[in-house]
Each structure stands twice: as structure tokens, then as C-alpha cells.
Specification:
The protein has 2 domains: 2-108, Enolase-like, N-terminal domain (Enolase-like, domain 1), CATH 3.30.390; 122-316, Enolase-like C-terminal domain (TIM Barrel, Alpha-Beta Barrel), CATH 3.20.20. 32% of the residues lie in helices and 23% in strands. The protein contains 11 helices and 13 strands. The chain has helices spanning 54-63, 65-69, 74-80, 85-102, 106-109, 129-138, 154-164, 180-192, 245-248, 251-263, 277-286; strands at 2-18, 21-35, 38-44, 122-124, 144-148, 169-173, 195-199, 219-221, 240-243, 267-270, 292-293, 311-312, 315-316. Helix 1 packs across helix 4 (85-102) and helix 6 runs parallel beside helix 7.
Length: 325
């Protein structure tokens, strides 16, 4: 097997801001596995919030190249690398290679029906209320808007977006930016504004407070949810989990996490880091039938990679085989 691992930088339209800072490019790591003339690809996003870097992820992957060449399979991979971006890229590349070798689409490999087109949320970056209202007006035809929030000034931001897009459904993501006091203040007002979901309001590690707080709006775990080993800590604190393949460490564990979460009575959101369509394709498989889909990464870039997702009529359609799977 030939193995390539390399980084790419994809410029963002303008900039993208959340409570932890801003960025102007999506920095990704790509793995290519070639065997008998067939190449499988996977893409991941190293995330500093979880102690990852581009070079660190590349080094993790380079360190397992010998066992990959010897035939390491997806099952064994789960114990060779921890959940995270590096394992995601390798796991998804193995799935893509397997699909191409068997000349089957990924859903056929999984014994699932052909996937449906999905409605994805469209994210509005954290900004002033005035700028977020302008962004909402520019995207008022999108059925589902996701707002990045930060704490102080959030009610003004949501109020402004509601004014700018009165017909849109709204979900919000605090990215760990609130505390208990702010939660209690904001939730009744956000309920009146029609907010349908709140993602990760409190810092991970402090979310035990949520078990005793009112949750009239469903609360979704993001930074607190990684793989199935963390799921038991979330039951009773959250109503939903956000499954991201860069956290689960690939499609294999993402499917297992979804299975266990649904068995525990939790609802499912499937999200993404800022990345190209290559990273969205395996997540699209997990997102079938999910309550919330947030796979708009390519829409936020200046340019997507070739054979990227077709986003039309506010839907994302099944990926081309030339892209992945």
C-alpha cells in the first residue's frame, strides 16, 4: 500500500468567528491510501481545542504507516489511534478504499438504502447584532440558521437575526461561552424568539449543572461529546448530541456512537468542522434521519474541491463517487 499524508489550506469567505477566536482559512489534513491502483481518501481538521495541530496529526498518521502497510484494518485502527482527527482521516480513507475496491457505494457497504438529500443548517459567524442581522437578511431564504454566540450581548444578536430572517428556524451554538446565571437569563427569552436548540452552552466539565436546570429548549452536547465512551456522562444532562467525525475518530465510531445514543433515547445532530466536501461525505452517511444536520462547511469556503457536494434548493445531495465512498 502506498500512503500519502499532507496538509491543505482552504480560504474562508471573509472570516469565521466563534467564542474562542477567528480564522480565515480551513486547515485540513488529507490521507490517501493506494492499493492495486485504487485510491481511498479521508480528510480531517486538527482542532486546537482538543490539543491537536496540523503537524501533530500528520506525525500521528506517519507513526502508524508501517502497520497500515501490513494490512491494518478499521477494527484494529480503533485501538491503534485515539479518537480524534488523525484516526478520522485514516478511518475514512479505509472506508473509501474498501468501497472502491468492491465497486460499491458506501451505503451499499453498510447495507443501507440510497441516502436522501438533506437540509443542512447554515452558520452565521459571531459578530455584532447589526452585522448578524445583515447576514441573516442575506440568507433569509435558508430554512435553518445556526448562530454562533459567545455570552454577553447574545440576546441582542438573536433578536437581530430573528428580525433579519423572520421565517427561518434558528438554532444557536454558545461554544462553551455561557455560565449558569446567563443560561437562566437567556433561555426564556430565546424560547420566545423561537430558538429550537442550544448547543454546548456551558464549558465541558461543568455540564453536570445542566441536570438540575430547566431545559425548555433542547440542549445539545458538542465539546462534551466525543465518542461512545463519553456518552454515559451526558445522559440526563443533554437532550441531543452533536456527532462530528473529527471527534469520534472516523465513520466507524460515529456509527457506533449514533446507535448507542439513540438506544439511550437521545436525539442526533451531525455536525462538522470547517472543511471541504471530502470531510462532509462520510458525515452525510451518519446524518441520514438525524434531527439536525449541520454540514455547511463547504458553503463557508471561497472554493470547494472538485466533485464537491451539490447544494441546491436548500438541500445537499448524495456525493458523487468521484468525491468519496
Amino acid at each position: 500500500m502506498e500512503i500519502r499524508v499532507f496538509s491543505e489550506s482552504w480560504p474562508i469567505r471573509g472570516s469565521f468567528t466563534i467564542s474562542r477566536g477567528s480564522k480565515t482559512a480551513a486547515d485540513v489534513v488529507v490521507v490517501e491510501l493506494t492499493q492495486d491502483g485504487v485510491t481511498g481518501r479521508g480528510e480531517c481538521v486538527p482542532y486546537a481545542r482538543y490539543g491537536e495541530s496540523v503537524q501533530g496529526v500528520i506525525t500521528q498518521i506517519e507513526n502508524i504507516m508501517p502497520v497500515l502497510r501490513e494490512g491494518l484494518d478499521r477494527g484494529a485502527l480503533q485501538s491503534v489511534l485515539p479518537a480524534g482527527a488523525a484516526r478520522n482521516a485514516v478511518d475514512c480513507a479505509l472506508w473509501d478504499l474498501e468501497s472502491k475496491q468492491h465497486r460499491q457505494r458506501i451505503w451499499q457497504r453498510l447495507n443501507k438504502p440510497e441516502p436522501d438529500a438533506l437540509l443542512t443548517a447554515y452558520t452565521l459567524s459571531l459578530d455584532t447584532p447589526e452585522n448578524m442581522q445583515a447576514a441573516a437578511e442575506a440568507n433569509s431564504d435558508r430554512p435553518l440558521l445556526k448562530l454562533k454566540l459567545a455570552g454577553a450581548g447574545d440576546l441582542a444578536r438573536v433578536t437581530a437575526v430573528r428580525k433579519g430572517a423572520p421565517q427561518a428556524r434558528i438554532i444557536v451554538d454558545a461554544n462553551e461561552g455561557w455560565d449558569e446565571t446567563l443560561y437562566r437569563e437567556l433561555v426564556p427569552a430565546l424560547q420566545k424568539l423561537g430558538v429550537e436548540m442550544i448547543e454546548q452552552p456551558l464549558p465541558a466539565g461543568q455540564d453536570q449543572i445542566l441536570a438540575s436546570l430547566p431545559r425548555p429548549i433542547p440542549i445539545c452536547a458538542d465539546e462534551s461529546c466525543h465518542d461512545s465512551s463519553t456518552l454515559h456522562e451526558l445522559i440526563g444532562r443533554y437532550d441531543m448530541i452533536n456527532i462530528k467525525l473529527d471527534k469520534t475518530g472516523g465513520l466507524t465510531e460515529a456509527l457506533e456512537l449514533r446507535k448507542q445514543a439513540e438506544a439511550a433515547g437521545m436525539k442526533i445532530m451531525v455536525g462538522c468542522m470547517l472543511a471541504t466536501s471530502l470531510a462532509m461525505a462520510p458525515a452525510f452517511v451518519v446524518a441520514q434521519g438525524a434531527q439536525v444536520v449541520d454540514l455547511d462547511g463547504p458553503l463557508l469556503l471561497q472554493k470547494d474541491r472538485d466533485a464537491g457536494f451539490n447544494f441546491s434548493d436548500n438541500q445537499m445531495h448524495a456525493p458523487d463517487a468521484a468525491l468519496w465512498g
